[in-house]
Amino acid sequence: MLSILDQSNRYLNDPLPSENIAPFTLCPFWDDGVIFDGTPEGIFYEITADDTQVTITFEFLYAQFPSQDRTIHFLVGYSTARPGVYTYTYLQVPDTGDGATVGAQYGSPNLSAVMFSYNEAVITPGLVLTVDTNKGVITRC
């Protein structure tokens, strides 16, 4: 999960919208995960900018709890050229998202959400999703 303004330590995933997490939360792969010591795992980011936009990419590389052998690897991208639009790119997913929530929630005081999947085996390596919180849609790219 990637939350704006609030945080959550909730590790059990819910369908969206969920009052158990922050109102503004991206859920590229909400499932149990762990970063083990002594591994190249982590959460990384890169920011680039030019005269027209700022782009940030978050890279998530971690193990699916409790196994160190089940690696989850995906990217979350955002550009100021497209406010409210995010890209989820899946590089490695051990169980195709069978126990994960994928989507986003937004809005305050009225909570809205867009959800691609909830505990469904539909997330595969190479899948790219565009999450548009302005239109309330998720599309495959």
Overall description:
The protein has 141 residues and is mostly beta strands. It contains no helices and eleven strands. Strands 3, 4, 5, 6, 7, 10 and 11 form a seven-stranded antiparallel sheet that branches. A four-stranded antiparallel sheet has the order 1-2-8-9, with no helix packed on it.
Q: Which descriptors would you attach to this protein?
A:
4-stranded antiparallel sheet; 7-stranded antiparallel sheet; 11 strands; about 0% helix; mainly beta
Topology of helices and strands:
Layout: E1 2-3, E2 25-30, E3 33-34, E4 42-49, E5 54-64, E6 71-79, E7 85-92, E8 101-106, E9 112-118, E10 128-132, E11 137-140
Antiparallel strand pairs: 1-2, 2-8, 3-5, 4-5, 5-6, 6-7, 7-10, 8-9, 10-11
Structural class: mainly beta
Q: How many strands in all? A: 11
The percentage helix is under 10%
What Rg do the Cα atoms give?
A: 15 Å
Structure, briefly:
The chain has strands at residues 2-3, 25-30, 33-34, 42-49, 54-64, 71-79, 85-92, 101-106, 112-118, 128-132, 137-140. The chain is mainly beta and 141 residues long. Strands 3, 4, 5, 6, 7, 10 and 11 form a 7-stranded antiparallel β-sheet that branches. Strands 1-2-8-9 form a 4-stranded antiparallel β-sheet, with no helix packed on it.
